Amino acid sequence: MDLEKLNSIVYRIFFFGSFLLLAIAVLEFVLNRFGYTVLQAIGGYTAGRLLQLAALLLTFVLALLVRQVREELKKAKIH
Questions:
Q1: Is 45 in contact with 25 (CB distance < 8 Å)?
Q2: Residue 9 to residue 3: CA distance in whole angstroms
């Protein structure tokens, strides 16, 4: 497996993982308004903490994508 395919897999995992965390955070926030929780079994993470983790994953995705764009621009200048 080459590096480009591995990067693509990592992008997709982080991207979909961050949106999954976002969906769970929104669900937790709404359920907390009615006095319920879904995150107690996970270790007591709050909705805000899940949003932070989602933002962290998206930051990594953006950094990797900017790196990929930079590499493509370098290739275009050489040829």
A1: no
A2: 10
Identify the sign of the CA torsion 61, 16, 47, 43: negative
The interaxial angle of helices 47-78 and 3-33, nearest 10 deg, is 160
Task: With residue 13 as reference, give the H or E element that holds it.
Answer: helix 3-33
Is the model's pLDDT at 8 over the cut of 90? no
CA triplet 46, 51, 24: central angle to 5 degrees? 70
- The per-residue pLDDT for 4 is 80
- The 10s digit of each residue's pLDDT in 14-29 is 999 999 999 998 998 8
What is the pTM assigned to this prediction? 0.77
- In the 8-state DSSP scheme, what is residue 43? T
Region class of 12: left (phi > 0), else alpha (psi between -120 and 50), else beta: alpha
